[in-house]
Amino acid sequence: MPLQPHSRRTSGGATAAAAMAASRRPGRRGGAAGAAGSGSPCAGREVRGDASFRWSPPRTDSRGATSWTEASAGASIGFPCCGLGTRGRRLLAMAPLSTRLLIQRGRPKSNRLGKIRSLDLSGLNLLSEDLDHTLLGRLKQLQELDLSDNQLETLPADLGLPHLHVLHCANNQLSDVTHLCQFPQLEELSLEGNPFLTVSDSLKVTFLLPELRKFNGKDASTTRSKAESLNRELTTRVATHWKKFMAALSPEEQAQAQADFVKSAVRNVRYGPMSLSEFTQWRVRMISEELVASGGTHARETDMPEGSHKATATQQPRARPVALRRPGDTLLSLSPQKRMCTSLLAPVEGSLVGSDSSQLEPLHFLQCHSKNNSPSDLKTQLWACAFEPAWDEGQAGAASQTVATCGGEAVCVIDCQTGIVLHKYKVPGEEFFSVAWTALTVVTQTGHKKRWNVLAAAGLRGLVRLLHVQAGFCCGLIRGHRKAIATLCFSPTHETHLFTASYDKRIILWDIGTPNQDYEFQASHLLTLDTTSTPLRLCPVPPCPDAYLLAGCEGGCCCWDVRLDQPQKKRVCEVEFVFSEGSKVSGQRVDGLAFVNEDVVASKGSSLGTICLWSWSQTWQGRGSQPTVAVVVLAWLQWSPTILAYFSLSTCPDKGLVLCGDEQGSVWIYDVRPLLAQRSPPQTAPQAPTQILKWPQPQAMGQTVTKTMVNTVVANPAFTYLTALTDSNIVAIWRRGEP
After folding, report:
1. Mind listing the pLDDT tens digit for each residue in 423-459?
2. Cis peptide before 58, with omega less than 30 degrees from 0?
3. 547, 563 in Cβ contact below 8 A?
4. Lowest CB count within 10 Å: 152, 224, 324, 659, which one?
5. What is the rounded distance in angstroms from the CA atom of residue 31 to the CA atom of residue 408?
6. Which CB contacts under 8 angstroms, 24+ apart, belong to 307-311?
7. Whole-angstrom Cα distance, residue 380 to residue 23?
């Protein structure tokens, strides 16, 4: 069955009306609706940082579905708990760049722009369009320019500064470096704190700037040598591909097919790790175009000096901490009318291996995170999902069938039964990595208590957004990290306590507070936990969730004391867990971590092709005062032998299940209750999965999606619905039938 449009709906007009009524409140931090505040009447400042955003209200399409988008441009408008904010005030209070301002901030002091050699324009909240090339072009002798701590998304291509030697652009929103080629004399460059730039951009910088000596405060020669080595190998491979490509054509066809060669080379020439694919494709295109222009007689290598580093073609773990941009990707521009971007993919074939093969069936396959609402987007990576707490507290979440998913620039809330996307939240330029729910108790104006589910979402920009899903707006914004947030989770005992883990190697415990009648939050910073490597998964320890936090990190599995009655507000790792008595396996990545029950932990990553079940209580009892302790292994579970990383496992404690996806699109399901019930020592051989859900191969745009990576698998507590997220922009939902 081909792709079909898919409907969304809101929770009703009454809630939307209440949300709009709250729009009369003054703005929150940076124009962000309902950001975590400082206690002022506006409650408009985040806990840390001063980046700013503007917002547009929910848009309702012809089907009554609501989506809301955080906009990066446009006038500030009334909206629940939002207003002008930092950037809005700048637009009103500060005039554009002027000759007077440049003279005031220029050195040496002169009343003529042509005499200025150094100019400081940092901290002015400048946008890209504020950089007037006509005005800046008058700085004929300018050698040093500081544009740090602004809101620049790109550098104009024609600033006219031919003698610029030093450029500082730290802490902006830059997503492209190609316009730096206009500064051929640049010797020193700073681009730190631009969350959209990747390692590929660093290689581009050294390729584009032949005179660069210092990059982000370090010697640029090492990065340059890597780029040179890659470029040399790519040049050779493109030339080889040219010969093969043209050999298959007649002389008449060769003249007409040269334009097709560039596309063929970009598609087929591969070299180096996946994390550098953006740079290699960029260079392959340039080399191919040069080869075509010369008629196949010349493919120019870069003039960069020889470097000592050799690029390798060995397979690397997938790059996770940055948004994977591809050629042609652009920030989403808002349109007056939102189109449906959710599509339903029909499963064509599928199989279930195991004793319970009749009980799980493919139900929905959705494309609801597509970039630019494109139904052909099968590249956006989806990373995390979480089921909403059940509204009926007596059911303890058993009836939950609403799941939040995140990936790319969107967070979606989906009804698993119908496949309808109930709500969608977009942030152009963001890359969401994690979502988590909490059920808060709020007091109404009449004094009645009610439960209110809040969804937290975070990712590349290091911001936590607290989303009022039903009303359709962001009611809180917290910035506590300078780098991307890998994962977050709420405390199981304190509904307002939120842990955030970042690539800045810190875990922070926040109290987001309880919102007032206008949906305003006031978050406070409770603890900072330092890590020696990037934390990837967080698990409060069930027997003592207020005392200890367990984390799977790039460098292993660690535990912290998080008791708030202790005086230290900044703490280091209490103990590191290793999965063998031998020291050789210490410090290995743990990218999957979850508790199966009150005592048993399931972890993945420490040993290739297996999942480890180990006892928290037995391990902790045998710890003593040691900083490193070997876990007490209960069993090993057989899993995919892939060397790729960042496949997150999950558990369904009520059913004794462990779930994990793999690189083939399969879902591995383990019923571990028999293993945990046995009294004998653990078997050395890994236990096979109870079931394997094979990838159902849905159809998209008339083509079958035959293979994909399942990054995350999560089931609701009753195990009636199972949701899997893929590397190919597909949300897959299975339903368990009656036994």
Report:
1. 889 998 899 999 999 998 877 655 667 778 899 999 9
2. no
3. yes
4. 324
5. 22
6. 307/221, 307/222, 307/224, 307/225, 307/226, 307/227, 307/228, 307/229, 308/225, 309/222, 309/225, 309/226, 309/229, 310/229, 311/226, 311/229, 311/230, 311/233, 311/271, 311/272, 311/276
7. 33
Burial 290-302 (b: 16+ CB within 10 A, else e): ebbeeebeebeeb
* Measured distance CA(8)–CA(676) in Å, rounded: 43
Q: Which two tokens stand for residue 438?
A: 């909490």
Segment (H or E) for 723: strand 721-726
pTM above 0.90, yes or no: no
Residue 476 confidence (pLDDT) above 80:
yes
For 33, the 3-state DSSP assignment is coil
Residue 406 token pair: 């995140």
The pLDDT of residue 471:
63
Task: For tokens 């199972």, name the residue.
Answer: 722
The structural domains of the chain, ordered by start, are 99-216 (3.80.10.10), 223-291 (no CATH), 361-388+399-736 (2.130.10.10)
Residue with tokens 């704190």: 193
pLDDT tens per residue across span 336-387: 232 233 445 554 444 444 444 448 899 999 999 998 878 888 899 999 999 9
Q: Which residue, among 165, 127, 47, 28, has the nearest Cα to 86 in the 3D structure?
A: 28
Least confident stretch, 29-43, 83-97, 103-117, 508-522: 29-43
Distances (CA, A) of 137 to 99, 142, 603, 654, 692: 12, 9, 58, 67, 64
Q: What is the pLDDT of residue 604?
A: 94
Between the two ends of the chain, the Cα-to-Cα distance in Å is 28
| C-alpha to C-alpha distances, 647 to 114, 316, 536, nearest whole angstrom | 57, 14, 11
H or E stretch covering 500: strand 497-502
Separation between Cα atoms, residue 150 and residue 86, nearest integer Å: 12
Q: How far is CA 211 from the centre of its chain?
A: 34
Query: What letter does residue 128 receive in the DSSP assignment?
Result: G
Up-side HSE of residue 234: CA atoms within 13 Å toward CB?
31
Give the Cα separation of 116 and 141 in Å (integer): 6
Specify the residue for token string 């397979």: 315
